[in-house]
Amino acid sequence: MRLQVYKSYEELSKTTADIIINLVKSKPDAVICLASGDTPRRTCEIVAERGIRERIDFSKFTFIGLDEWVGMPKNNAGSCYYFFETLLIKPLQLSSSQVHLFDALSKNLDDECKKMDKTISEKAGIDLMVVGIGMNGHIGFNEPGVSFDNYSHVIDLDETTITVGQKYFKDAVILKQGITLGLQHLMNSKKAIVIANGTKKAAVIKQAVNGPVSSLFPASIIQEHENGYVMIDEDAATLINK
Ligand code: F6R
Predict the structure, then answer these.
(1) Against a cut of 0.85, is the pTM above it?
(2) Ligand 1 atom showing the smallest separation from residue 168 Cα
């Protein structure tokens, strides 16, 4: 794992967007998985802005959404679907055949998981995963205590995720479960990047980077990824032993 610290959130976002765009340019049929949430928001905006301005061909890559709140309608502005729809899918005119997001309203969530795993294995795996880190060290909805061996699965959300997750919604919502790619997807991806910004993330970044590798703190698994990066701004880097 390599650690990279950037001056600001903007610089972190620009660099992350560069990595995504350069991959699509060098490998047009790349498979890319992104998290939603506050951290990758600016990255997605930059990818879309540059994609349009520079007329980058995004028509051949495969987009995978990392996770979704179980039971969340797509048109809820706090859903992961809505995030990607407004920030990437619409602006870049991605076709439905190249976009793979969990349907969290499906009556058969196990089938949703199997479908996602099949899509990823048929595409010969994920080239790049860009993920955030939760205030409990989760990646996607891989909550503390999750097995490192999981592929896609449905999981009961941790109290921290339920509380912090309210920030995405205008009105209070009941959040109970998540559907998510597993940490095996992360470990099997050709490149994995954990991004974080702000002083509020300093303690969890310290634990992910300097703490023991443990399923009790899922993001710590990034230490064992051969091509794993932790890319953060200076505020998120204040507590780590460099
Ligand atoms: C969202 C996701 C979550 C977030 C994490 C950090 O799709 O997978 O694991 O990445 O909770 O969220 P933010 O970026 O809002 O701090």
Answers:
(1) yes
(2) 15
Domain 2-237 class in CATH: alpha beta
For residue 64, pLDDT beyond 80 = yes
CB 67 within 8 A of CB 129: no
pLDDT tens by residue, 76-107: 999 999 999 999 999 999 999 999 999 999 99
Task: Characterise 45 by phi-psi region: left (phi > 0), alpha (psi -120 to 50), beta (else).
Answer: alpha
Residue 60 has what DSSP assignment?
S
Phi and psi angles of residue 32, each rounded to the nearest 5 degrees, phi first:
-125, 130
136: annotated active-site residue: yes
Q: At what angle do helices 9-26 and 38-53 cross, to 10 degrees?
A: 50
Report which protein residue has its CA nearest ligand 1's atom 3: 140
Taking the centre of ligand 1 as the mean of its atom positions, its distance from the CA of residue 80, in whole angstroms, is: 10
Is residue 132 within 6 Å of ligand 1 at its C-beta? Answer: yes
Our answer to whether residue 138 is catalytic in this structure is yes
Q: Which atom of ligand 1 is nearest to the CA of 67?
A: 7
Q: 137 alpha carbon to ligand 1 midpoint, in Å?
A: 10
Cα(112)–Cα(127) distance, rounded to whole angstroms?
21
pLDDT single digits (tens) 162-192: 999 999 999 999 999 999 999 999 999 999 9
Extents of the domains making up the chain: 2-237
Which atom of ligand 1 is nearest to 141's Cα? 9
Q: Is the pLDDT of residue 50 over 90?
A: yes
